[in-house]
Amino acid sequence: MPVQSGVSHPVGVGQDASALAVYLEGIRAGLVGASVIALWFLLVDTFAGRPFYTPTVLGAALFHGGAGIENESAVTPSLELVAGFTWVHYLVFMLIGIGAARLMALAERNPSFGFGIVLFFAVFEFGFLLASMIFAEGVLQRLAWPAVVVGNLLAAVGMGLVLWRGHRQLDIQP
Fold this sequence. Notes:
Helix content is 75%, strand content 0%.
């Protein structure tokens, strides 16, 4: 019977490094997605003459149950709400990015999962809009929902580019 030395096998080390790379790629994709949508709404809000309106409204909805956003003209940017919402926003996007990176790694090992990933994205996007319409109708009324859809699509494209760059060996054909 062979004696085990307590030193992990090189395959285990490679698997750990590979798992770490997937998590880091997911975090990177999440940071890109969160930044893209944050910049999108900064532009939308600035052109509408009310910078930081969107994160203020979303922060008020998240942290105060929507208190203070009943009157659109009375909404004033709050550093506390913007910073708090931005922190949660980035955290959620990093978690989504990690999930997407893990799915990409899975598709790399088993290409038949590729269509499932595309389907998951479509269901996720639709589910987000549906949940927003059901649970955050008041907030969605304050924000132009087409801008929300465009922002989410831009974020998805940004995240997709980060993930595609790390998985170019996947055979993606139309």
